[in-house]
Amino acid sequence: MNSENPTLAEKLATAIADGILNGSLPPGLRLDEMGLAEQHGVSRTPVREALRQLSLSGLIDMRPRKGAVVSKATPDQVENLFVAMAEIEATCARLAAISMTPVERRRLQARHEGMLALAKTGDTGAYSDANVAFHSSIYTGSHNAPLAEFALNLRRRVGPFRRAQFQVEGRLLRSNQEHDAVVRAILSGDASGAHAAMLHHVSLVEDAFEAFAATNAA
Amino acid sequence: MNSENPTLAEKLATAIADGILNGSLPPGLRLDEMGLAEQHGVSRTPVREALRQLSLSGLIDMRPRKGAVVSKATPDQVENLFVAMAEIEATCARLAAISMTPVERRRLQARHEGMLALAKTGDTGAYSDANVAFHSSIYTGSHNAPLAEFALNLRRRVGPFRRAQFQVEGRLLRSNQEHDAVVRAILSGDASGAHAAMLHHVSLVEDAFEAFAATNAA
DNA sequence: GGCATCTATCTTGTATGCAATCTCGGACAT
DNA sequence: ATGTCCGAGATTGCATACAAGATAGATGCC
Fold first, then answer.
1. Domain ranges for chain A
2. Average pLDDT along chain A
3. Which fold has domain B75-217?
4. Residue B75's pLDDT is what?
5. Distance of A5 CA from C2 C1′ (whole Å)
6. What integer pLDDT is reported at residue A76 of this predicted model?
7. Nearest residue on chain A to B147, alpha-carbon basis
8. Across the strands, what pairs with A69?
9. φ and ψ at residue B11, rounded to 5 degrees
10. Taking CB atoms and an 8 Å limit, are A62 and B2 in contact across chains?
11. Interface size, chain A vs chain B, as Cβ–Cβ contacts under 8 Å
């Protein structure tokens, strides 16, 4: 939304969101306004506005007179998040194949080739960061602000559940191969091909998550 | 979101949203908190929370210390809204073709057949209402809450720009024919067919809007 | 006459206070 | 012993009050 927004409410919203995304505010935790207020050294008013904002992004649930809690997602809801994410990413890729400018296409290719080096090195952290940038550039490449915004929001929401995906052995190189199919389709303007390739890629991420979750649950 | 939410902020949010959607609050209008407050007979606090909520749905734009204005969309942005809408609706239709329960499928068919009668009668208002319900049932039929929510949000945002679409002569029957293709694909579980049919349908709506806008601009 | 600047006023952002509602613990009745 | 009802405490929702930044008009200067 508003990137440079110096109001306390905005800063609190991002601070609380960070807390939720990095796990320091676990799902199900009750967020009482008073506590958050004095914890951040402000009054209740900006806290209230931040909470209202977060509730619309789906990160927390607010019930009329019962306060706010960090959204506790059921497995079904997480599954839906991943499905929605895959669909939206695929749609963005399709539009990007049609709408990207030559400059954007060249940048996408350069970024992709840079990631191949990272994948070979096995630098998980750097690859993860580059991966976020890679996908984001496809969102913006769709040249459709509402879709791109929604994609970013979904990405934030699935973040807590996909943290360890690149830990799986060999995932980096496979990810790069899948990216390769996506990039080739986009560069050649193959809309449906880009859609299919991205859907395949993100669905595999989902599978990786499920495998990871299954091993952790066992 | 929260359907039965008796807080003033929620009621104000829907009231202001209605005002924007029905045109009584035209795009570009400045929304000063004080004015809205005494206009609705409340204090500024719930107004502020309502505005913050609306800003996240994209209906209004808020800038840090400069207040809120009703979103004034450029033609490009409106175009993007329609494109996003078409893509999301098509995605919902595809998922619906896969995920709808037998009961939902039968209800969809019944609703669709009922609309044929309305189209023949030429009852524009009733058809329009039924049309909203028809599309909404496909959103929920996707069994994917995030996507359905986003679709509803987009529908609200494009609302102001598609008000007169059914006024075009013969649009009702053509709409019904297009629905027929969508319904048939969904009922038969033809995922890609449902996607294509819905994309086609909504894109035609977009064309109708553009024709309408062109005639008005001329 | 035009433009910059300064100030007065207005609007927004934040804090605090009060009323209504919900939660939770205990007492009482069955 | 268990279920129900009631009341105190706590928390949310709303209103009001205060502070800070922005806008606009006027005034002085070029």
1. 8-70, 75-217
2. 86
3. Four Helix Bundle (Hemerythrin (Met), subunit A) (1.20.120)
4. 83
5. 36
6. 84
7. A84
8. A30, A61
9. -65, -40
10. yes
11. 79
